[in-house]
Structures are given as C-alpha cells and as structure tokens.
Design brief:
Elements (H helix, E strand, L loop, with lengths): L1 H27 L7 H7 L16 E5 L31 H14 E3 L10 H11 L3 E5 L2 H4 L10 H18 L4 E4 L5 H8 L3 H7 L5 H4 L7 H26 L4 E3 L3 H4 L17 H16 L6
Parallel strand pairs: 1-2, 1-3, 3-4, 4-5
Helix pairs in contact: 4-6, 6-10
Length: 300
Amino acid sequence: MRKRSHRSRTVLAIAAATVLGLAGCDASGGNAAAPRDAAAKARPSPKPTPAWDRSPQSLVAVGDSITRGFDACAVLSDCPEVSWATGSDAQVDSLAVRLLGASGAAERSWNYAVTGARMADLPAQMTQAVSREPDLVTVMVGANDACRSTVSAMTSVTAFRTGFEEAMDTLRESLPKTQVYVSSVPDLKRLWSQGRTNALGKQVWKLGICPSMLGDPDVLTSAATLRRAKVQNRVEAYNKVLEEVCAKDRRCRFDGGAVFDYRFGTEQLSHWDWFHPSRNGQARLAEIAYRMVTAKKPAA
C-alpha cells in the first residue's frame, strides 16, 4: 500500500510540475509564439472606405453655361430654372428636385455656375459653395477651356489640373466630408457634327460660340479637320484629369465619361444656338447625374 501511494504521489508531482512549467512560460513571455488571435488583435485594422450617401440633403452646383441653362429658353441668355443640377422646371426634373423634392430643392440647393467660366474660375466658385456647407457639390466645367478663339489659346492640361486640384483643396479645407459629383466635359465634336445641319445655328455660331471647334463649320479641309481633332484631344485629356484628381478623393465620384459618351441629337440641342443643351438635353444630363449619385458603386 505504501509503495502504491508513493508511486501515485510521484506521478501527481510530475504532472503538476509540467503544468506549472507551461504556465510559467506563458506568464513570463518566454519564447512561445503568441496565439494567432492575439497577433491579429495587435495589428491595426484598415480604415474603412466611407460609405457614399446616396440621399444628400443639400446641393451646390458650380461650373459654366451648361449648368446655368444658357440658351435653353432664349437666345444668348441664362435660364437657371432649367438647369440639370438645380433647376425647378418640371420638364427637366433636375438632380436637386430628384434628390430633395421640389420644395427641398428650392430651399437647399444653390447654383454658383457662371456662363463663360473656365477651370481657373472654379476655386472661387468653390469658395462660394463652401459657405452653404452642402452635402453634395456638382461640378461641370471644361468646355470653355477648349472653346477658345484658337487652338493655341486652349487651357493647357497642366493648368487645367492645377485649377481642379486647387478647387478640391478649397473645398476640403473647410468641408472634408462633402461629396462631389464630377461630370465629364461633353463631346464637342459631336455637338459640331449635329449642329452644323442647321443653317440658323451656324449663323449664331458666328457670334463667337466655341470658335476653336465651330469656326468655319462646313469646311472639311485637312487643316480644319486637324484643328477639330486637336480640340477633341484636349477635351479627352481634360476628362482624364477630372477622373484622376477625383479618384484621389474618397468622397468624389466622376461620371466615368457618361456625359462625354452620350449621343446627343438635335432634340437635345438648343434651337437658339444648336450647341448648348435644350430643355430635353438638360433633362438627359439630370438623368445621368441622378443615376451616378444614387448608384451603389461609382462608375467604372
């Protein structure tokens, strides 16, 4: 009995020593590897991508004559009530009306676009936008940078990029969480090809509407063709800048070229100048913008 009892006590002592030894290693740190769960907790989790709010409650529009509804109601005149971004016209059903309702759009949307504005003017417009502290800013600018008296007078791609970056910096200094929808510059060459079918439109073009593209609209010489191609290439370069700068901002959505790619016909063009959007054209721009702003994912 004494031998069996002694043997039992020996076995228990060895087992206890083993347990204590293992516990001691863990307690002192030793060379034991940390559990995988602990290592995972030690690593900082990546910052989540902020969710895009598909139902913003206020809106400011910045840009040029297109956003002012130029030539949509009367010749050589702004008509902001038909603006694709903030207009009240029922035919257009603007982005603001679609997002906020008619009364909400009247109270919580503002249009600081200016006819004739270029990218260099955007930072000042953005300063005005900041004063309203909107949930969403819409940007449509660039056509006037390409529509100059001559091809050589077009805004350089470098200057265009600098202007857009400055505008975005102006916004972000005060409103880091405001969302931005950026429209691509329209296909000016298509607007030329559609508008040149109308004699009245070509007469209005002579008043100085986009001479770099629309000058001598019926001339199809190699020089004229090359001139129009240079303007078109510059527009495409501007759109690339808008896409790249917007991609660096987590709360900015570029339209993926949707406005540039839209196949505008004569029904979508102003019957005053056959270049700017008509009411119908403004409505199509509103449709594109609403689709992009309310999409679950940004345009590819």
